[in-house]
Amino acid sequence: MLTIDQATYDAIVAHAKRDHPDEACGIVAGPEGSDRPERLVEMVNAAGSPTFYEFDSTELLALYKEMWANDEEPVVVYHSHTATEAYPSRTDIGLASEPNAHYVLVSTREHGNNEGPVEFRSYRIVDGEVTEEEVTVVPEPASNMRSTG
Amino acid sequence: MAIEVRIPTILRNYTDGEKAVSAEGATLSALIDDLEANHPGIRERLIENEDLRRFVNVYINDEDVRFIGGLEATLADGDQVVVLPAVAGG
Question: Interface pTM (ipTM) of the complex?
């Protein structure tokens, strides 16, 4: 199951709507091993395409170095589909390379850049195997809900 | 000559879970052969048809090797190599 806070969820949806009809992409980093998506990083789709996305290689390295320095990992890897359903394509499955990440797919095919609901679904993709999982949206980031006492 | 190679999560099954390993080589090609000698199977994940795989990025001291000679890029003692799979899809 993916547990994600409302603000991060909304920001991913807004990014997908803004970049429509091109695919939007990015990650949500979180402390290593925590499974808590806490820090949204919108990435530029270097492919600038309605059917493909790719992080720029220089920005990819900068992103990972930042996460290593913070002891973070990509908890969520997200991208949008702009004309098809929010389900991993064959290319998505073939290139998925973060076995610990939640792969989030947002589809903007219904409303494009406009207001209106989107499909927001999450998957595990390991060794070419896709498993859909439940998405639970919580009001506050998980780190703020930990007991202090 | 020791060069530190940062290994991505998905290839750590070849390095007993190690995040970074030490390897040797005067070129990236030689370095990958040395990696293969100690971590059998890893070469095929990096190279296809005698070239770097399209969706694997390798950096030497933060430079994408595609801009500095690819597999023939040269290495010196103390260089840092990072392997990162592309984050991409359709």
Answer: 0.93
